Amino acid sequence: MHTMSTRKVKDIFTRCAEYRTAEEARRCGYYPYFHVLESAPGPEVVIAGQTMLMLASNDYLGLAHDPRVQAAAAHALHHYGTGCCSSRFLAGTLRIHEKLETRLAAFVRKEAALVFSTGMQANLGLISALAHRKDWVFADKLVHASILDGCCLSHARMARFPHNDAAALAALLEKTDEDGGALVVIEGVYSMDGDIAPLPTLLATAHAHGARVIVDDAHGIGVLGANGAGTAEELGCLDEVDVVMGTFSKALAASGGFIAGTRNVIDYVRHHARSLIFSAALSAPMAAAVIASLEIVQQEPERRVRLRQVSDLLRNGLHDLGFDVGASVTPIIPVLIGSMERAAALWRTLYAQGVFTSLVIAPAVPPGGERLRLSVSAIHTDEHIARILKRFLQAGRATHII
Question: Rounded to whole angstroms, how far apart are CA atoms 207 and 184?
Fold first, then answer.
């Protein structure tokens, strides 16, 4: 009688049991993630019973608690219900989705638009649908993780070029073969540095080599441009962008994402983006909130003016105190530290003083790029900024950073 021999594989959960980083950070009192907010979004929030000055939210225009946006979402909730209970591909496309897509396409001056349930899904679906195995995707060194993951899902060949370096992009494009197409993916505003891409130069470089260009403008939509249509509008090259990608979770005060381009490209992605086809559709209240936010963006340009004023006030104030704020020219202001320990110490000191910021360490930034990331809102007052600068001064001295 033969006995069955069983060879056991390594328990894949071992790495979970051995993971100690988060628990050690909690024990030392500088764990900066998953803090629970007990109040509505705003320039001040309540966390663990403490009122905090908020500098970690991307509610750039202060619309997340706007009564007009809330009313639109509430009306859609009563009309359509809480969720679509299906994917867009099957039974989840609502009339309000089509209305939103029409508005978005007109907003960024493209023929058509397509809405996704999250911004992450928009990039995953867009890039993996357009780029195939023999194609090339060229991405800026600092692009968002969703772009890199989309490239991986596409199975296309990928190369990355130094940040905002058109000459390096041209050199890569020169070396490509003619077996496949080329896609260049860049951002309008970079989410960790707050700087703006030189879009006209990068677009001209890509198009001269026959490549198409996707601009992820998650942090530019609603913030930049005469009408709020983003970085490309600000720089006068919106019509040259092949595909605009944007999100609703920043200036538009909701959740979700979209792409916009020519009608044939959008229709192709609609039928090939797995993140769209196999995901539940964006809820009607979210779609209605975005439509209301778009209207406010277009009707109230003074919000963008105020946002720029308050961003400059904080950025210049931090610089004058001796902090390194990099090349930021937007509401995203990095406070560059260059050490995980020192950045964590500054974050913890500010938190204890009632200022909530985002601690950014590797792998979100390269080692040596550790920082606090600040996001400003149009509804921050001058008094808020004065209090923030006072506490940065105290914390910077206490941690010997300034």
Answer: 10
Q: What is the pLDDT of residues 338-348, one digit of tens each?
A: 999 999 999 99
The continuous run of DSSP H or E covering 246 comes out as strand 243-247
pTM above 0.90, yes or no: yes
pLDDT in tens, 267-307: 999 999 999 999 999 999 999 999 999 999 999 999 999 99
CB distance 296 to 63 below 8 Å:
yes
Task: Outline which parts of the chain fall under CATH 3.90.1150.10.
Answer: 25-54+301-398
Across the range 160-184, mean pLDDT stands at: 94
Which positions are catalytic? 191, 219, 250
Domain 67-299: top CATH class: alpha beta
- Tell me how far apart the alpha carbons of residues 277 and 291 are, in angstroms, rounded to a whole number: 23
Q: Alpha helices, DSSP H only, in 108-237?
A: 119-130, 145-154, 166-174, 199-208, 231-234
Beginning with the edge strand found earlier in the chain, give each strand of the sheet holding 212-216 in spatial order: 112-116, 257-261, 243-247, 212-216, 182-187, 136-140, 157-161
d(CA 272, CA 262): 16
- Tokens 């309008």 belong to residue: 188
Domain 25-54+301-398 fold is Aspartate Aminotransferase, domain 1 (3.90.1150)
Name the segment(s) of the chain with CATH classification 3.40.640.10.
67-299
363: left (phi over 0), alpha (psi -120 to 50) or beta: alpha
Average pLDDT, the chain: 96
